[in-house]
Amino acid sequence: MEKPPVLNEELIAMNVQLTERLRELEEINDDLNNLLVSSEVPTLFLDPCLRIRRWTPATDALLRLIPIDVGRPLKDLGWCFEDPDLLDDAALVLAGISVEPREVHTEQGHWYLRRILPYCTKTTPINGVVITFAEMTARKHAELALADSERTLRRVTDALPALISRVDASLRYRFNNAAYERWFGLDRADILGKPVVEIIGEQSFARARPRMERALAGEGSVFDAWLPFQGDGVRCCQVEYIPDRRADGRVTGFFVLVIDITDRRRSEETIKRLNAENRARAAELRAVFDAAPVGIYLGRDSDCRDMEMNRAGAEILRLSEHANPSLSGSDAAALAFRIFHGGDELASEDLPMQRAARIGESVQGFAEDIVFADGEIKHLMASAAPLRNEAGDVYGCVGILADVTRTTQAERRYREALERLKLHIDRSPVASLEWAADTGILRWSSAAERVFGWSEAEALQGSLHNLGLFPEDVRESFADMVGGLVGGLVEHNHCLHLNQRKDGETVWCEWHNSVLRDGDGRLVSILSLALDVSEQQALQRSLREQTEQLAEADRRKNAFLAMLGHELRNPLAPVRNALDLLALGNQDRAKHDWAYAVIDRQTHHLERLVHDLLDVARITRGSITLRVARQDLGQLLHQALEVVDCEVRARGHEVVLEVPADPVPVRGDATRLVQVLSNVLHNAAKYTDEGGRIGVTLAHHAEGARVTVEDNGQGIAAEAMPSLFEAFTQGPRSLARAEGGLGLGLTLVKSLVDLHGGRVEIDSAGVGLGSRVTLTFPLDAEPAPDLSAGSAVERASSRAATPRKRVLVVDDSAEVVEAMSELLSALGHEVSGVPTGEAALDLVTRMRPDLILLDIGLPDIDGIEVARRLIKLPERKAIRLVAVSGYGASHLGSDADLFDAHLLKPAGLADLQQVLD
């Protein structure tokens, strides 16, 4: 059936379109075929099963394909390049996984960059793969050459000790050598790409950054600096920055060359410091050379013809400092000295320096004498040593001269002193002996021979042990002494020993021992000095006995002071009672008389106590003075009996007196002899019970006049007899005793009797058996004086009434002045009184006194000064000046001549009457 025209038209049109499309496809196919044929890139198309679909002609050389290979699997083909991962990579691409291009090379050395991409269609995203092989042989060879060059460069840079790196414009590392890694202790991977500041540290980066910026600006630089690197401390580096320029001149970075010059810089600084030190040492040596106290001489030629010396050397030789002192030099004839050794003059070639330079050996301790033209001689000690160069050849000499003149003279004096010392030691009373650790004698002085009796020859053959110096009873203390010294416990000691002499006698010796040790502390010897102190020991024993006696005397003194207080209070009590009675105003005359008698009697008792004390003091000082004259001992005995008459009658004693009718002449002081006799009689009356018997006998004896006083009283114990004549000593008594006394009576008796050349003895059969005192005095052999009538008249006239006188009383005690004034006024004299010396001197010119009673102790100026000033007054010749003091006239010394008389306080009526007469 015939088609409709419309449909035919559509078919014709469609056919035309298809024809046109077919033509286009043919053209496209032709274009694609031409493209593939003209492409030089080997390209291989594979289907999803990796079978050959198509390839370009350039692929034939790689895969050796022929037309019948279309449809064959790729794995069945053989190819002439190494690509073991080709199939695996193709499978990955088919799976939709992209793979990186790979470099493959043929056996002929051609290199290709293999890429695998998916073959995509509109209907199928991956419908196979396309493999291309881009030729890269030339580039690869260039890369390999470049890599080889880089390896060579790195080996070179790594071998260099300097730090080499490249830094880009962002200041990051792009290259570094091995030294860089060693310096910072980092791997290359830890450095490349890192900022410079991170590697070298902020401190070093801050110092280097300005130079880095200048390098990026195209300016290179080189500098040295001490840079701190983190982790490596401070290092001294020489740093060079080199800009990295491209062909167009653009700077893309810079190269850094760092050389560690720390050791070199330190070596330079060390060298500089050593040079400075050497210069300082040279200056010091020069200063030492100039300031040395010994002479130093330098000879810089082998013959020592030209020498240099220091200041001390010039002074020793008496030359100027810049003179040539060489006796071998050209100026030797002008030198005004000669040199001697052992008395012989030395030639110039025999001098120490010339000799040392000639033989090449040192000369030490060479003694020489230098004699100057004016006769001065100096003793010198010379030393010399040759100077050698690096080859060991002698080129000169150095010499030293020490002036030992003073030392030599001192040694001579020392030897002489030692000799004198030995003579002194030999003559000294101190025994000197030196002994070893085993006590063997090493040295024995003459004094030791005198002290111990052993001769030096005998002693040197023995020891302290076998000489028997230490008896058996002191051997233990001797062993302690030796052990302490030898054992090193002490270096010296001092001890007292009883020693035995050769003749067997013993002596006390005071030993002073000293240990001598050597430099290693070993004992060399022990020196002992022994002094005979036997007399001192005896004296010490005597002193100990005296000390005991003094202690006993002190005890007796204390007892005496207690007794003195008691004895002084005893008479004060009745005086106080009598005064109280008078104060009551009782008009009974009998009571008044009783009170006056009590006061008078007790006052006399107090005076007696005080006089006894003063007499003992005078006798002790040796200041008592006797008024010696011819005396009748019988009359003096009667006077003594009158003194104790009241006491004898009060106690009811019977006194039996036997006195020759003729005088018994003796020479002595009447007052003191009466004092002696009355003291003896007083003791007999005191220590004899009431109603006792006292026998008093005076008789001539072969030894002189003898007075015996014997009583039947209390007697004396035998143990008290030895101390009866000592001061402050009494026999035993109880607190209830009524006798009183100070225990001074017998002391005074013995002292006064001794002063008269007599003797006193006391005997007693014992307590309760009475006692006997015997006094013996030398008889006076001179004829008795003729007492004429005229003398009697004079004595009678002296007793006439004393005329009225003007009397000045000077005393700082108002009561003494008042009492004395009342007494003198009662005697009919005109009296004035003042309390000070100045007032007395002022009153003398107005009052014009006949008599001045002057107290010595005054508040303003003392009585002695008043007496001195009175001498200058014209009124002094008409004044009788009497010193009134509690001390004896001897206490005034030479000042006693300023006074006409002296009164002891208290001065009684009789004393005043005597000075008034």
Describe the structure in brief.
Its EC number is 2.7.13.3. Residues 8-35 form a coiled coil. The protein has 917 residues and is an alpha+beta fold.
Strand order of the largest sheet: 12-11-17-16-15-13-14
Task: Report the mean per-residue pLDDT as an integer.
Answer: 81
CATH superfamily caption of the largest domain: Histidine kinase-like ATPase, C-terminal domain
CATH class wording of the largest domain: Alpha Beta
**What would you call the shape?**
elongated
Quickly count the domains: 7
How many H/I helices?
25
Structural class call reads alpha+beta
Any idea of the CATH topology of the largest domain? Heat Shock Protein 90
Termini, distance in Å? 226 Å
What would you say the CATH architecture of the largest domain is? Answer: 2-Layer Sandwich
Helix content: 40-55%
Count the strands? 34
Q: Name the beta content range.
A: 15-25%
EC number: 2.7.13.3
GO molecular function: histidine phosphotransfer kinase activity; phosphorelay sensor kinase activity
Enzyme class: transferase
Domain Histidine kinase: 563-781
